[in-house]
Amino acid sequence: MHILLAAVIMADAVDDAQRSVLLLVCSALVLLMALGTSLFYRNPSRPATKIVLFSAGAVAVLWVLCGYGLSFGKAIIPGFLGSPIGLLAAFGSAGGSSAAVLHAFALVVFQGAVAVLTITIITSVNGHRVRLGAWLAFVTLWLILVYAPIAYSVFNMRDGWLFDGLQIVDQAGGTVVHISAGAALLALLVIFLPASERPQPPKQRMMVVGVCILWLGAFGLNIGSEGVVDQLFGTIILNTLVAPVVAAIAWSVTELLMSGRVTQRGLVSGLVTGIVAVAPACGILTPLWTVALAVLAGGICSAVVTSSRRSAHGHGRRPVSIHLVGGIVGVAYIGLFGNGVGWKDSGQPTGLADQAAAAVGVAAYSFVVTLVIAWVVHKSIGLKNNTAGARVVAVDA
Predict the structure, then answer these.
(1) Residue 298 has pLDDT above 80, yes or no
(2) How many CB atoms lie within 10 A of CB 355?
């Protein structure tokens, strides 16, 4: 009996160690994804690069101090936020197994990397428009008031406000990362983008390098969100590989039909759209249904960008379309064709209603709260970098 118990404990320890290694490798890939995102939306000015780096560092520190606890700790505001000291509690409950402690550390690191990625999406688009000190204040408030409540509900999968009557599926942060960031970008667009601002063409070579790095990092985000090498491992890898390619083709075809030309910027934007759309669904769709999702997401997002290209604020809508619209399409699509939960299998529209409600709910919450935070910070200490003036270079064109 004692021998059997010892064997079970040893097997659990080995399993924890293997999962920890997987999470740490995936964490590095997610940080690589953040780097690719920064390059994809990169502004050539040094202040913008500095702000992206400082923001990522601030989020990493805040994650250890309170972010992990707010997102995964014991409820301090039921259904909304965990305790900010939840990180210490997690380590205290890890028991005496060193493998279990390592796994707890690995989970903190992985989720911290996901938080850094989310902030990097927002900062990379707006870094050239803001003052460093004010932006760090905004990032702090956004992590606590927007990101943490959404992560608490979706990633915690317990006691969250989204799970009060909703049964949603989100494999790798379609709501937490992309929809929340996309809605925040839309809110900041209202504040930052005057009609007089005109974009200059971004460096195409840097965008291509960035999207390649971003695509590689997406494998870490999607696999790490599963957290274990299981029967879905191959499906996740294949879907993450296929979706960006198909979405890029769909984007380019739509662009050709609507504007009469295909651009390199559109092609790489389609790749990112596929990465965004497949994130929530990478483990719950067959490859065939993933292809259909990529066609849908790439076509819709391309139509939104192409139709608004000549409007006053059109050049700011590309990242909003990619992350917000692409994320909503990916999350809602699960309600139609997700294995076991979609309308095609269940015969009921309940799954679609739940997925759509979650997507719209997260988008609305992030938009409203981001708008309030940005307005308060701007009115109190000044968020805009007014010295940029007409020389602002918008790389999200």
Answers:
(1) yes
(2) 30
pLDDT of residue 91 exceeding 70, the answer is no
Computed over its alpha carbons, how large is the radius of gyration of the chain?
A: 21
DSSP 309: T
Between the alpha carbon of residue 331 and those of residues 93, 130, 248, 278, the distances in Å are: 33, 31, 19, 9
- From residue 381, give the alpha-carbon distance in Å to each of 137, 311, 376, 384: 9, 31, 8, 9
- Phi and psi at residue 89, to the nearest 5°: -65, -35
Asked whether 262 and 282 are in contact (CB, 8 A), the reply is no
Sign of the CA dihedral 65, 69, 74, 75?
Answer: positive
Beta strand spans in the chain (E): 75-77, 81-82
> Cβ distance 345 to 293 under 8 Å?
no
Task: Report pLDDT digits (tens) over 259-270.
Answer: 888 999 999 999
Q: Are 10 and 92 in contact, with CB atoms under 8 Å apart?
A: no
Tens digits of residue pLDDT in 300-327: 999 999 887 655 454 568 899 999 999 9
229 pLDDT above the threshold of 90: no
Are the CB atoms for 394 and 201 separated by under 8 Å? no
The H or E element that residue 188 is part of is helix 180-192
Dihedral (CA of 31, 32, 38, 41) sign: negative
Average pLDDT over residues 57-66: 92
Rounded-to-10 torsion of CA 316, 319, 320, 321: 110
Q: What's the token pair of residue 188? A: 């900041």
Measure the CA–CA gap between 136 and 151, rounded to whole angstroms.
20
Q: pLDDT at residue 92 above 80?
A: no
The percent of residues above 70 in pLDDT, for the chain, comes to: 81
Cβ(243)–Cβ(294) below 8 Å = yes
